[in-house]
Amino acid sequence: MARFAGVSQVTARRALEGSSLVAPATRERVLRALDVLGVPRPPAQDTDRSLLIGVVVPDLKNPVFPAFAEAISSRLNKRGLVPVLCTRTSDGVSEANYIEMLLAQNVGGIVFIGSSYADAGPVQGSALRDRGVPLVLINPADENADAVQISADDADAVHQALTHLTGMGHERIGLLVGPVGHVPSARKLAAFAAFFKARQVPSEDWMPLVGHALFSMEAGVLTAGRILRNGATAIVCGSDELALGAVRGARRQGLEVPGDVSVTGFDDSLLMGAVDPPLTTCRQPVERMADAAMEALVMQMQGQRAEPGVTPFQTQLIVRNSTGRPAHRPRS
Amino acid sequence: MARFAGVSQVTARRALEGSSLVAPATRERVLRALDVLGVPRPPAQDTDRSLLIGVVVPDLKNPVFPAFAEAISSRLNKRGLVPVLCTRTSDGVSEANYIEMLLAQNVGGIVFIGSSYADAGPVQGSALRDRGVPLVLINPADENADAVQISADDADAVHQALTHLTGMGHERIGLLVGPVGHVPSARKLAAFAAFFKARQVPSEDWMPLVGHALFSMEAGVLTAGRILRNGATAIVCGSDELALGAVRGARRQGLEVPGDVSVTGFDDSLLMGAVDPPLTTCRQPVERMADAAMEALVMQMQGQRAEPGVTPFQTQLIVRNSTGRPAHRPRS
């Protein structure tokens, strides 16, 4: 039968067992060979529970998360794996509950996107590790030295944005990132500090221009407002959502973007070319990061060890219209 | 034990069987009662396969789909059901493959969003119905009289947009909707025709201002370009994505929105208040539609019949800055 289907005996057996190691098209060829040979197909109930893979996102409202969720889900689908989507709800189903649910389903692995792994709490995280569930964390909020991490190169992204802004003449540049303790934000802040230290700008000058905010447009509006009142002519933001908040915060003070204030984002998520003004932002290589996440997941599912520390993925500064030369009119 | 947990015996049994009819919190209370009484918990492997629910979206790039996917997924999570996300991939995993995959997993039901059910093809659809899989279709592309449908009130949405535009003085109004054969688009076109017929505008006047396009920004740019060349001063669009395309199409002809051309969208998806110009659009009541979808799904999962024909859900015109009075300067 294997010969008839044009596959090895091992592949044929795996295909009939519903193994995740066999591509859906190959499995279909094996099943068709059974049909032709008049052998009944194995019952669907025999499929492998571990085909289910959790895809945990904080939400689908920050537009970078649907991008990662789609990239991961479509790759899982192509391998015959089954993405189980978990999103936080406003009225209280927490990440910890999802993890219980995913464990109850005996999932074959979990991909955590953004802060969702940290939000699940240390107890749940160690429950997963104790049970040996293959894990991949994309842009995690914590260090999590013991799990595979796929992260954007936050430091380089900030360096690119600052080089762009100082190249246009900005000197008083602010930084608007996520909450204190959010590791990608801490990496961005460290790169920001290093940039000015290398230029011998004293920290008293730039520290009042740094703000932490929750990842929401509203929080961005408020914190950007404070950074601007402290005299920034440009703000480097840790997400596109925060950058859109910064644009609004500037407008609330009667300032124009980019006429009076330049703003850069991070992600280059959906529609950032269509917003007003089109956003200059650091594009995360979502597709390449999803490829790496899949590779690390499948290695672990096959019982191999995936390296926890991964080289960060370089972002690309996409220059649009939210950045320009600093205004020369004086501001208070 | 049931008494100890404060639930009925039926509920306790269902909870231990992992039935989807028992809320996760209740199940947890029953399990805790077992712990207190020193009875071992049932193994996790006993959970019900039919807890898996397919959530099929054409993609997560049109921003209305993540909104529906999140609303549905979070409701499933809250009921202890497990959303399996299926998205089309650019390189070829089709809806038909997902349905095979979902059937192989013995899913307890499937929610199809947008055109995903029609795209799966009639053979797959009848396979699902033959197996009695509970189905709910949200804004389906076809009529599908035999499945539960949750649809926005397309006709009323077009009527609202046209009333808004004619109220500002527009007379030559175009309509940009999805492909021929896409039922929500056909409903919008019928309402558009009825609106002008009631005003005794001959069809020769408005027919050249109607365009069909695939649901993508690029297709919107091209088709809107033709509608504008035929003299429209406003375009009512069948999705926000098409509306963003129409704004670009107008700009390519050197026209300003809303100075020269007014544009309305449909969905009020993510960021439509942040795009340039902020889009006037008909908001779909995503949360209420998701509630209705869940109710219809759960009824079917409990073996009850859910009514296939459902009253369409009224949209709300959100007036922003992409619409204004028609320009008085002459256009060719």
Give me the secondary-structure topology.
The structure is a homodimer of 332-residue chains.
Chain A: H1 2-5, H2 9-16, H3 24-37, E1 52-57, H4 64-78, E2 82-87, H5 95-104, E3 109-113, H6 116-120, H7 122-130, E4 135-138, E5 148-150, H8 154-167, E6 173-177, H9 183-198, H10 203-206, E7 210-212, H11 217-229, E8 234-237, H12 240-252, E9 262-267, E10 280-283, H13 286-301, E11 316-318
Parallel strand pairs in A: 1-2, 1-3, 3-4, 4-5, 6-7, 6-8, 8-9, 9-10
Antiparallel strand pairs in A: 10-11
Helix pairs in contact in A: 2-3, 4-13, 8-9, 11-12
Q: Can you tag this structure with a few keywords?
A:
homodimer; 332 residues; alpha/beta; Rossmann fold; 3 domains; six-stranded mixed sheet; five-stranded parallel sheet; 42% helix; elongated
Describe the protein's architecture and organization.
The structure is a homodimer of 332-residue chains. Chain A is an alpha/beta fold and 332 residues long. Chain A has three domains: 2-42; 49-151 and 286-312, Rossmann fold, CATH 3.40.50.2300; 154-284, 3-Layer(aba) Sandwich (Rossmann fold), CATH 3.40.50.2300. Helices cover 42% and strands 15% of the residues of chain A. The first copy, chain A, has helices at 2-5, 9-16, 24-37, 64-78, 95-104, 116-120, 122-130, 154-167, 183-198, 203-206, 217-229, 240-252, 286-301, and strands at residues 52-57, 82-87, 109-113, 135-138, 148-150, 173-177, 210-212, 234-237, 262-267, 280-283, 316-318. Chain A has a six-stranded mixed sheet, with helices on both faces. In chain A, strands 2-1-3-4-5 form a five-stranded parallel sheet, sandwiched between helices. The longest helix of chain A has 16 residues, at 183-198. Chain A starts with a helix and ends in a 14-residue tail after the last strand. The model of chain A is unreliable at 43-47 (pLDDT under 50). Chains A and B meet through helix 4, strand 2 and helix 5 of A and helix 4, strand 2 and helix 5 of B.
